[in-house]
UniProtKB/TrEMBL annotation:
<keyword id="KW-0479">Metal-binding</keyword>
<keyword id="KW-0645">Protease</keyword>
<protein>
    <submittedName>
        <fullName>DNA repair protein</fullName>
    </submittedName>
</protein>
<keyword id="KW-0482">Metalloprotease</keyword>
<dbReference type="InterPro" id="IPR001405">
    <property type="entry name" value="UPF0758"/>
</dbReference>
<feature type="domain" description="MPN">
    <location>
        <begin position="28"/>
        <end position="153"/>
    </location>
</feature>
<keyword id="KW-0378">Hydrolase</keyword>
<dbReference type="InterPro" id="IPR025657">
    <property type="entry name" value="RadC_JAB"/>
</dbReference>
<keyword id="KW-0862">Zinc</keyword>
<dbReference type="Pfam" id="PF04002">
    <property type="entry name" value="RadC"/>
</dbReference>
<dbReference type="InterPro" id="IPR037518">
    <property type="entry name" value="MPN"/>
</dbReference>
Length: 153
């Protein structure tokens, strides 16, 4: 079937990224402690023990923070970390690296088997896109768990 002179209505997609800072003015992350500090500055600590949230830190090639993005907010026992949303955000910003992060409202920072499986899945997907998952932090108000520090990634 040939469509001659048929007009299709489709959405136009435009991608843009407009940082409002100089790279030298933003933090450079070289440890899980520094990542934790950045995250706690961008987390509503009044809700950290109430709702589970998933965020990512976007990094340039020198591990400077391009931004912190809220990926999802859930309930007391979980939230969704959609790989499509995570990778679309990283690709749109031209990020070279990503630090994954979520909290456990219980304040227990040890990873569940679901946390480990998700991290491995995202790590594999990132490799296909030439992105680097630098770490995955599970945070609470007063402590954190680092997958990189523990040798999981």
């Amino acid at each position: 079937m040939v469509y001659k002179n048929t007009l299709f209505n489709v959405a136009e997609i435009e991608i843009s990224y407009k940082p409002k800072y100089k790279p030298s003015e933003i933090p450079q992350i070289s440890s899980s402690e520094q990542a934790y500090e950045v995250l706690t500055q961008h987390w509503d600590l009044g809700r950290i023990e109430f709702l589970e949230e998933f965020k990512i830190i976007l990094l340039n090639r020198r591990n400077r923070v391009l931004g912190v993005v809220n990926i999802s907010s859930g309930g007391v026992s979980g939230t969704i970390a959609d790989p499509k949303v995570i990778f679309a955000t990283a690709l749109k910003t031209g990020s070279s690296g990503i630090i994954l992060a979520h909290n456990h409202p219980s304040s227990e920072v040890d990873p569940s088997s679901e946390d480990i499986n998700l991290t491995k899945k995202l790590y594999s997907g990132a490799n296909l896109l030439d992105l680097k998952i630098m770490d995955h932090l599970i945070i609470s108000k007063n402590s954190f768990y680092s997958f990189a520090d523990e040798g999981i990634i």
